[in-house]
Design goal:
Layout lengths: L1 E6 L2 E5 L5 E4 L17 E3 L18 E3 L3 E5 L2 E9 L10 E9 L2 E5 L9 H7 L4 E5 L8 H11 L3 E5 L14 H4 L5 E4 L2 E2 L10 E5 L4
Parallel strand pairs: 3-4, 4-5, 9-10, 10-11, 11-14, 12-14
Antiparallel strand pairs: 1-2, 1-13, 2-3, 6-7, 7-8, 8-9
Length: 211
């Protein structure tokens, strides 16, 4: 399998059998290149322009955006209700966390999470191998809070997202604050592997965004 970062909160997770899942597609205003991959499934955590631009993707993917369970292409996607802010959605509305397993690897995409997780949310999420977590603050949890959420879920591989880069000048922070305190940080263009090749010691993986 492989994991590729398009930028912002959008990733490709490609299964061994070639099934492609893309998370939270953005529009052109965000600053990154629109993905050329043709997904089978797209997850949308909430209906903001930088997370729901499904129409800009190639093909005719099935969209998963609701709370609850939905099976697509043999993959069960579990949507868990959360909020885009610290005031139960009063400022920015709701946000859906998605948990799904591909080739035995359990993924959790937090979308634009705006708060620490409750004990009930932690239980609903369950065991996580790979965590996609926003770290840029302003519209989501910030770097310090993201470290706390990472501790709450204790994944093997943590991939930061939704932070400032050369391509994206939205008013959010870089990932530097988030990386403080982690002893094992790696940088790669994309990740390729399987359940057995996941790190035994918790690792933060900073991916390069696709050009």
């Amino acid at each position: 399998m492989r994991i590729k970062w398009f930028g912002h909160a959008s990733f490709l997770v490609e299964a061994e059998d070639g099934t492609k899942v893309i998370t939270d597609p953005f529009d052109e205003s965000v600053g990154y290149s629109i993905p050329k991959e043709k997904p089978d499934v797209v997850t949308v955590s909430h209906s903001h322009f930088d997370h729901n631009a499904v129409d800009l993707l190639q093909g005719d993917p099935e969209v998963v955006k609701d709370v609850g369970e939905k099976k697509v292409k043999g993959i069960i996607f579990k949507g868990i209700k959360s909020f885009h802010d610290k005031n139960k959605g009063a400022q920015r509305g709701t946000n859906t966390i998605f948990v799904f397993a591909i080739d035995g690897v359990r993924f959790c995409h937090l979308g634009d999470l705006g708060h620490l997780l409750s004990s009930d949310q932690q239980k609903e999420i369950g065991e996580v191998d790979v965590l996609f977590i926003p770290v840029g603050g302003t519209f989501t949890i910030d770097g310090r809070e993201a470290r706390e959420v990472s501790q709450q879920l204790n994944p093997r591989l943590i991939i930061p997202m939704h932070y400032r880069t050369e391509a994206c000048s939205i008013g959010i922070d870089s990932c530097k604050e988030f990386l403080k305190g982690f002893t094992k940080v790696e940088k790669k263009g994309e990740w390729q592997g399987n359940k057995e090749s996941l790190p035994s010691k918790q690792t933060v993986l900073v991916l390069e965004y696709a050009r």
